[in-house]
């Protein structure tokens, strides 16, 4: 055997000690000494931990009930204060529901479930024996959790888990029914003046300069007494002016603009976010939610992002007083794609 002065091992499971020629094998240190918890030695401490876990599960139940109260009990009255109040209670309810059940399970595991360290050898798989062993492992886990002999924890956990999905069900319910033909029609109609959002001041063609962008609503919107927000959500439009030679209208759309002024739905065709960013140099419209980008010179076709349809264009012209007016409603449904869309 040679003298390896560089400290290299002479066998597969050996290492040379620094400054020594002798080689020692690694020894299995074994498992560290097990430290008993207070709940392992004191029945009162175990009972106290059990009550704490039950309280945490109870907090989860209260959080779920708080969410349901805020969702169904607080009626929105079109004021910001009420909306903020409802959102606050919705957030607190979900937080307590999730944190209560999560911290309860963690505390249960740390304080009451067995925590002995186990080292197992890897054995060759045997199908039938493995199935029997797996069943025994599951039975052992259930027995070690103590869920059979701790009905307080079991019952509060069942209650918390039964109620926890209800906020998600309520949120999905709020998505509402499919829109049907509700997005096929807006307030825009022949002769409807384009007005500034939100004051409703009509816009003349001479007000729109090259590079400018206006957020536009139908002039009649502010006169509505009911359903104003819903109608505005469908009817909002972006109005911009380009050099007419930069536009490339398709056949049949040659007269949908006026001297380079074009109007497009502000509702992104991805998931309905407001398209609000206009890049004057590139003539791109950008949705800030998921970065869908639309080319204004090519009838707002999608050039980047998850949207798959161009923004619907509103045909416009001017009236006898020089105000911009709609020629008609949109020729296609506004908003994101949906199953009932033709």
Provide a descriptive summary of the structure in words.
The chain has 2 domains: 38-117 and 126-173; 194-326, Rieske Iron-sulfur Protein (3-layer Sandwich), CATH 2.102.10. With 342 residues, the chain is α+β, with helices and mostly antiparallel strands. Mean pLDDT is 86; it is low at 7-16. Helices cover 34% and strands 13% of the residues. The chain is elongated and about 90 Å long.
Overall shape: it is elongated
* Assigned CATH superfamily of the largest domain: Rieske [2Fe-2S] iron-sulphur domain
Poorly predicted ranges (pLDDT <50, ≥5 residues)? 7-16
Helices, by number, come to 7
Q: What is the typical, i.e. mean, pLDDT?
A: 86
**N- and C-termini, Cα separation:** 85 Å
How many strand elements? 12
In CATH, the architecture of the largest domain is: 3-layer Sandwich
Order of helices and strands: EEHHHHHHEEHEEEEEEEE
InterPro entries: QcrA_N, Rieske_2Fe-2S, Rieske_2Fe-2S_sf, Rieske_Fe-S_prot
Keywords: 2Fe-2S, Cell membrane, Disulfide bond, Electron transport, Iron, Iron-sulfur, Membrane, Metal-binding, Oxidoreductase, Respiratory chain, Transmembrane, Transmembrane helix, Transport
Pfam families: QcrA_N, Rieske
Biased composition (Basic and acidic residues): 18-27
């Amino acid at each position: 055997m040679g003298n390896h002065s560089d400290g290299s091992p002479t066998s597969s499971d050996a290492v040379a000690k620094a400054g020594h020629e002798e080689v020692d094998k690694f020894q299995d240190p074994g498992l560290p000494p097990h430290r008993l918890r207070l709940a392992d030695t004191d029945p009162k401490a175990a009972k106290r931990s059990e009550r704490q876990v039950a309280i945490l599960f109870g907090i989860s139940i209260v959080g779920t009930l708080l969410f349901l109260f805020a969702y169904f009990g607080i009626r929105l009255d079109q004021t910001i204060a009420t909306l903020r109040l409802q959102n606050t209670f919705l957030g607190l309810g979900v937080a307590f529901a999730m944190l209560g059940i999560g911290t309860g399970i963690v505390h249960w595991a740390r304080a009451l479930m067995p925590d002995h360290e186990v080292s197992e050898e890897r054995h060759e798989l045997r199908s039938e024996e493995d199935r029997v062993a797996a069943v025994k492992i599951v039975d052992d886990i259930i027995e070690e959790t103590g869920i059979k002999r701790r009905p307080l924890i079991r019952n509060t956990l069942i209650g918390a888990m039964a109620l926890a999905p209800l906020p998600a069900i309520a949120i999905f319910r709020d998505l509402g029914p499919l829109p049907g033909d509700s997005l096929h029609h807006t307030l825009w109609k022949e002769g409807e003046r384009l007005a500034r959002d939100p004051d409703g001041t009509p816009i003349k063609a001479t007000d729109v300069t090259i590079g400018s962008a206006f957020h536009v609503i139908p002039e009649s919107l502010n006169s509505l007494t009911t359903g104003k927000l819903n109608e505005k959500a469908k009817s909002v439009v972006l109005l911009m002016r380009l050099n007419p030679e930069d536009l490339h209208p398709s056949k049949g759309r040659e007269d949908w603009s006026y001297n380079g002024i074009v109007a497009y739905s502000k509702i992104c065709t991805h998931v309905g976010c407001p398209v609000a960013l206009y890049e004057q140099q590139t003539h791109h419209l950008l949705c800030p939610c998921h970065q869908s980008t639309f080319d204004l010179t090519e009838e707002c076709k999608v050039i980047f992002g998850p949207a798959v349809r161009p923004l619907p264009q509103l045909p416009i012209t001017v009236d006898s007083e020089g105000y911009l007016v709609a020629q008609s409603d949109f020729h296609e449904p506004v908003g994101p794609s949906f199953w009932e869309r033709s």
